Amino acid sequence: DTGVSQDPRHKITKRGQNVTFRCDPISEHNRLYWYRQTLGQGPEFLTYFQNEAQLEKSRLLSDRFSAERPKGSFSTLEIQRTEQGDSAMYLCASSLGRGQYFGPGTRLTVT
Amino acid sequence: AQTVTQSQPEMSVQEAETVTLSCTYDTSESDYYLFWYKQPPSRQMILVIRQEAYKQQNATENRFSVNFQKAAKSFSLKISDSQLGDAAMYFCAYLLKTSYDKVIFGPGTSLSVIP
């Protein structure tokens, strides 16, 4: 499978816990993006990496959110002290610059 | 503000018929990409079609085609010979060439296909 993969696909956590999601982009893609999508809405941009450098962060990305792409390959998105409002689908996408290819997403439910 | 508007929250089409989904966008830039993405229920977002703003010719991918009106900032998607598998959320989006960063998405149109 040469597409974008994300792990886990589903995560249920209790409020206040920390969670970490992983994204593996298409291997030759140097750009990686994280988005958040709530029910019935389009994806909202969270952050962007070019290789290992994090070049842009949305104001949606509060201090509780951190993302890394240490070797310019896979990326992780961590949410600390989760809140119920963090419940959403977290989408990862990768690109060479002419269109983004999305992974299946990680659906987070905070109880 | 850079925004994308999809004025039809829901659309339906009879199988084998043609449907057009509307999209308008707002940007002060002149060079960008426009996209239509399809998201079936509980499934992955798929890139359906891409249009480069400097190209006047409308993009076509099999049964999917666009009507790109740059001056009007309009980018509609036409689906011909609709199939049951076309049922999904469709998102219009754009990306600025000046900065290959975020894609700006519209709110989506939910398309139902009636057998």
Give an account of the 3D structure.
The complex is a heterodimer of chains A (111) and B (115). Chain A is mostly beta strands and 111 residues long. Chain A has no helices and eleven strands. Chain B has 115 residues and is mostly beta strands. Helices cover 0% and strands 52% of the residues of chain B. Chain B has no helices and twelve strands. Chain B has strands at residues 3-5, 10-14, 19-21, 24-26, 32-39, 46-52, 60-61, 64-69, 74-79, 88-96, 104-105, 109-114. In chain B, the strands form three sheets. In chain B, strands 2, 5, 6, 10, 11 and 12 form a six-stranded mixed sheet that branches. Chains A and B meet through strand 5, strand 9 and strand 10 of A and strand 5, strand 6, strand 10 and strand 11 of B.
Which terms summarize this structure?
heterodimer, A: 111 residues, mainly beta, four-stranded antiparallel beta sheet, globular, B: 115 residues, 12 strands
Task: Give a short synopsis of this structure.
The complex is a heterodimer of chains A (111) and B (115). With 111 residues, chain A is an all-beta fold.
Biggest sheet of chain B: strands, sense, closure?
6 strands, mixed
**CA(first)-CA(last) distance of chain B:** 40 Å
Q: Write the H/E string of chain B, N to C.
A: EEEEEEEEEEEE
* Form type of chain A: globular
Cα shape of chain B: globular
Helix amount of chain B: under 10%
Report how far the terminal alpha carbons of chain A are from each other: 33 Å
